[in-house]
Design a protein that fits this description.
2 domains, Four Helix Bundle (Hemerythrin (Met), subunit A)
Length: 309
């Protein structure tokens, strides 16, 4: 039996964002094929962009760009898509930063996010990516509250060849982080990925725990953590904005990973996040497979969201 041909990242990205592009691109095509461009149509275009969760600011700017010099003219759907793609890219380009992990050894990455955002899976996928690059990776099961998260990380460790530092459920997360940073240094590891709890019901408790983790790891490595990544689930739409607000205050988030873009028509939320917070977007995920998490490209994402071929 022949192996199915492996899809390129562009195929996976555009396929993964199909729900967003179908919703947005479909609405735009319907509007511009019905009549000539006028102010009422621009209002409808702006509404379609807001429905795709791009945010009010970006939607107004993009609609204005569509209208520029085109009043009372027939406009082709492809032209509108191209303008939308160019404007979305403009919003996202300042945030498209690769995660540079060669500035420290071990490079300590604290991974935060609410439970269910895909945090532990993302850690596993990043471990696979870094291991494939020939880096020595350690994983710390710092979400000690959930036995399932600890088990999941152990499975990823076995799968990727990464050493896993874990304890019994309910153990102190800060002392585990201390142990993990110490082990990463003594084993000359390149990368240490630390999972953390994501329960937002009690923000004070979570804040205290994260602050303690950071304080304790600094005793071993004064500059740690070198990156604090927030994993966001695209399917939560506008809630992603409030999650980032909370975790930025609690954990000092330095960059974003957006998962589950294939499960929603609200992929435009990444634009709203970029417009509001201007934080680096390091990786995006459009599926379950290890290869479905890739470094973020503003141009590719913008073209995929607009439904361009």
């Amino acid at each position: 039996m022949t192996e199915p041909e492996k899809k390129s990242w562009w195929q996976r990205l555009s396929g993964g964002l199909r729900r967003t592009s179908a919703s947005l691109g479909g609405a735009l095509s319907d509007l511009v094929t019905r009549r000539r461009l006028d102010s009422a149509m621009l209002d409808e275009i702006e509404e379609a962009l807001i429905r795709a969760d791009l945010g009010v600011t970006a939607a107004a700017r993009i609609a204005a760009a569509v209208g520029e010099g085109r009043y009372d003219k027939d406009v082709a759907p492809e032209d509108v898509k191209a303008i939308v793609a160019a404007e979305v890219e403009k919003s996202l380009a300042p945030c498209a930063h690769p995660l540079a992990t060669d500035t420290a050894k071990p490079f300590v990455i604290l991974v935060t996010g609410v439970n269910g955002s895909g945090k532990t899976t993302t850690i596993g996928k990043l471990a696979a990516k870094f291991s494939a690059e020939g880096k020595k990776v350690l994983l710390a099961a710092g979400d000690t509250f959930r036995a399932a998260a600890i088990d999941q990380l152990r499975i990823w460790g076995a799968r990727t060849g990464a050493t896993v530092i874990a304890r019994e459920p309910g153990s102190d997360a800060a002392s585990l982080a201390f142990e993990a940073v110490t082990a990463a240094k003594s084993e000359n590891a390149d990368i240490l990925l630390i999972d953390t709890a994501g329960r937002l019901q009690n923000k004070t408790e979570l804040m205290d725990e994260l602050e303690k983790i950071v304080r304790v790891m600094k005793k071993v490595e004064p500059d740690a953590p070198h990156a604090v990544l927030l994993v966001l689930d695209a399917t939560v739409g506008q809630n992603a904005l409030s999650q980032l607000e909370v975790f930025r205050k609690i954990a000092g988030v330095t960059g974003l990973v957006m998962t589950k873009l294939d499960g929603t028509a609200r992929g435009g939320i990444l634009v709203a996040l970029a417009e509001k917070f201007r934080l680096p977007i390091h990786f995006i995920g459009v599926g379950e497979g290890v290869d479905d998490l890739q470094p973020f490209s503003a141009k590719d994402f913008a073209r995929a969201v607009a439904g361009m071929e």
